[in-house]
Amino acid sequence: MLQMRPLPPISQFNKALGPITKMGHYDISLSFILNKLQQFQGIQVDLYTFNIAINCYCRLNQVHFSFSLLGSLFKRGYTPDATTINTLINGLILEDKTPEAVELFKKLITTREVEPDVNMYGTIVNGLCRTRNTIRAVSLLRMMEEGSGKPDTVVYNTIIDSLCKDRMVDDAVKLFTEMNEKGIFRDVVTYTSLIHGLCNFGRWEEATEMLREMLDSGIAPNVCTFNVLVDACTKEEKMNKAEEVLEVMIQRGVDPDVVTYNTLMDGCCFQGHMDEAIRVFDTMVDRGLHPNIFSYNILINGYCKKMKIDEAMRLFRELPRRGLKHNNGTFNTMLQGLFRSSRCGAVQKLFNEMQVVGIIPNSQTYGILLDGLCKNEHISEALSLFHVMERNGLDLDVVMYSILIDTFCKDKKLNTARALFNNLSSKGLLPDVKTYNMMIHGLCKEGLLHEAKALFVKMEQSGCSANDFTYNTIIRGFIRQHKCYEALIFVEEMVQRVQVRTEQKKVAEVQDEAQELLVVDWFEFSKLNNADQDSEGLSDEDCAGGGERLKKPLSPDLVKEIYDMELLVKDGRKPVPLQRVMILEVTCSKCDLCLPPPIYQFNKALGPIMKMGHYDISRSLILNKLLQFRGIQLNIYTFNIAINRCCCLNQAHFGFSLLGSLFKCDYTPDATTFTTLINGLILEDKTPEAVELFKKLITTKEIELDLVMYGTIVNGLCRTGNTIRVVNLLRIIEEGSCKPDNVVYTTIIDNLCKDRMVDNALKLLTEMDEKGIFPDVVTYNSLIHGLCNFGQWEEATEMLREMLDSGIAPNVRTSNVFVDALTKEGKAKKAEGVLEVVIQRGVDPDVVTYNTLMNGYCLQGQMNEAIRVFDTMVDRGLHPNIFSYNILINGYCKKMKIDEAMHLF
Fold first, then answer.
1. 443-472 pLDDT, tens digit each
2. What is the H or E stretch that residue 839 is in?
3. Which residues form the signal peptide (predicted)?
4. The pTM is what?
């Protein structure tokens, strides 16, 4: 254009610069304006050109240069217009200089040199809201209303949306009403923001009313509106409702997008319904949408939480083939999943792979590595990693320190934990309530109560308020040392704090939960008479004091009850588990309570009694105590506990007799009730009766059968050697609404292989493939084991190849099957070759693997090789068990090397 004669007018140059600037080539536009146009004779740049240049500087975060251009602008006789000032205000906001932007805006309103327009209002309001200055945005709104340019829908929408995000929904509703009063049109964005805000607070009726008002106003909801509703339903775990919203969405001609399906998948994964999540994923693909990285991250995370690591890894490896790149979230999720399944070797390989592909680990990645190494007892590696992070200058926060402090406290290395804790202040970090709780818990477990109390005082003095878990920990410490009165002083202190926080709570409610605290915690100590039996681990929720337990002092009668039971312990007699519930009765009758505790507290107390095997005590309590106790309304959960107790005592007939009382209390047996009864019949070797009951339930359709019940009946039949009957029953199950899943098929396949009916098992595998039921590593392991037992090596190898082709990674059980089969065939060297391949694939062998290999060498009389395998096992950090030594001792004895055997003995 510069070569043209005559030169084009400046408007043509401005027109050419516009698209260049929109494409983000700010430096090119600036260079052209400053180095070409301004120096070229015959071209007079105008205000529009200056505005382009100012915008370029602002976009390059060089707003100071933008202000310097104002001098040249005035020099050429131009006056800044609304666009110029608006651009400068936006530049200041982009550089996080919101106060300066507001001052400039206020100055314009005061001096009236430039009349602010709606765009300028929108810019300043948007900037304030984006930097979480919503209150200032509302104040500015009032100032704007006094000017000539009134705020429009966009300005109101921006503020309403920001108020909802800041959890000020009532203020947003007031602005919404104000819009109507002032005749400002409310569009789909306005309604969507408010519906989102109301849903986040669980205000469903108001959200529904808002949606109805929106439709009555003739405003059609868009995909964002429906996504808000789907998201709200999934967060409330109302998946059926979310599916209904999706159906309505499609009926109204609004096409769901990837966000819609991702939200639905996330809801399914959160509830552990992976089959449903995959169905939603497939539906999304069928509708022509392309899943993004978040779609895969959601599924990978879901599988990892369900401990289905092989399925997660299969999706992880599928991403590049789908043209998607892994991100930090993908790798972090997989690393966490591998740690949960104790596959630490695979974690190291994946972490290395992460760096090879150019993804820089973030603080969350290192947090996962630290936490995973500690939980898998690789404490020295975790500490080494921590020191590497320190040397590299990585940002270490209090969470990372807390992970190590908690680990060293559990490992009884209090000196190391103290050193890390004391190091926090020098790093400029303040310990939070969770960090203090971890340290106090470690001190109390070691009996260092005075130090724990001193740390507790320091915690309060530093402004970090103790929570219920802090008090509970110290109280448990006192109780272990039989210092109940000191524990009660702490309870009294707790009450005073709680009364300040919860003045509106009912006194009965406060007393109710207070009585259980000290009593149940004391019971946890006294029932076992062993402090080491206390819970070793602290969950995040525990340390943070997850729920609010409100505490009250115990009455003298209840304290006496505690001391009476304490004397039992001192005399060497252990209190029976029933005393835990007896204390709850004392709580009801002696502690000035107008009402007994709710039934869920009794159910909670009954659970541990059942796990300890005291079925007769729990049954007696329910039948002879709770049923006769006035004011206590049993629920279906209590009845299910009682029925389960009867069944565990091989008295299923009593379990059935309880159904009468259940109906009398107006309850209907659920799937858990019948599953328990079926299991009881199987335990008593009454399999035919169990099958008949199951068939009757299918026929009558009185209750909806679930996969747990299928698994119970199938597992029971297989365990009692009724493999043929279970195959026949499988055909009946398939006629129901809830179809058999992978677990049911795998159980039957495993049993068929054990009964030497491998051909039938292979037919079931083919059937699974035809019905779209995915076999997992357990399925393949069962079949490979069965084939190896028959010496069908080619078929077993082919099965392994098919497994790998399906993206299913072998686990330690797979390697153990091959190693066992080969050693039995006298092929120990070949078995060791298999082991090397397995290790290369990231599968860590266990003690069973090495024991099997040692046994193979011992059977061949190769004791030197057996000892070499033993040493390798120890070098890999595994601890030989009694079977390891038995194998070697037996091998030496067979070789008549009795001295060596006696040495090992």
1. 988 888 889 888 988 888 888 888 778 877
2. helix 828-840
3. none
4. 0.53
